[in-house]
Write a structure and sequence with these properties.
142 residues; mainly beta; 6% helix; Phage tail protein; structural molecule activity; Phage_T4_Gp19; CHP02241
Length: 142
């Protein structure tokens, strides 16, 4: 039996319907929240029912230094000028050697916001960009 691998990732590669958007060094917002409705049962003072009603998914924020792959994001967004089409995205957590250690498939993805770099000749710092995606949940990876 092999030991489980450590979940230490150094980058996250992102593709949208097989179109590679490149690698990102930060990924925030992968998760979900079950909205719970509470109902008190009449005659049973010691019981409050916790009933799940819906699942909410936060937006996913991906950040990286500006690279040649930055053009891929602006091209994807520019292609939506005629209409927004929801697509499937895959985020893969990768090791330094490029081995995928975990992946998440997101359903019905649309871009919410792209923030480009703050450019200033007065401050020498890494130019970064952030892509924010909305989605309707995770797809079964089986």
């Amino acid at each position: 039996m092999t030991a489980p691998e450590e979940a230490v990732a150094v980058c996250f590669s992102v593709s949208v319907d097989k179109d590679d958007l490149g690698s990102f060094n930060s990924c925030e917002g992968l998760g979900c929240e079950f909205v719970i409705e509470q109902r008190e049962e009449g005659g049973n003072n010691g019981m409050v029912w916790q009933l799940p009603t819906r699942i909410k998914y936060p937006n996913v924020k991906l950040t990286r230094p500006v690279t040649r792959d930055s053009q891929k994001i602006t091209s994807w967004i520019a292609g939506m000028a005629a209409g927004v089409k929801r697509r499937t995205a895959v985020i893969e957590a990768k090791t330094l050697e490029g081995k995928t250690i975990a992946s998440w498939s997101l359903a019905e993805v649309i871009p919410v916001r792209w923030t480009g770099p703050q450019l200033s000749a007065e401050q020498a710092k890494v130019a970064t960009e952030t892509l924010e995606l909305a989605h309707h949940g995770f797809l079964d990876a089986r």
